[in-house]
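Hello forum,

I keep getting stuck at the same step: I have a sequence, I want structure tokens, and every attempt I make locally crashes halfway through. Rather than fight my setup again tonight, could one of you with a working pipeline run this one for me? It's a single chain of 79 residues.
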Amino acid sequence: MEIILVTAFCINLVFFCIHKIKKVLEDVEKSSFILDVSSSEDEIKDLLRQVGNEELEQESAEQASESEEESQNIKTEGA
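Reply #2:
Ran it on my machine without issues. Output:
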């Protein structure tokens, strides 16, 4: 009987924690959305440029590593 009560209490506690976490996440999402809407057009364009630049840097780094791997493979095949 005690095990059932403890199990029920634990399950209730887990659901309570999940509910609180969801509320906090929703509040954070709402506040960040408000900040995004209030941002100026120039700030948004700058952020988009930064994201684009980061993506280009990542792609070029990936291509460089791939070309290094290919050159190493060619060297090992030739040897």
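The mean pLDDT is 81. If your local run keeps crashing, start a new thread with the error log.
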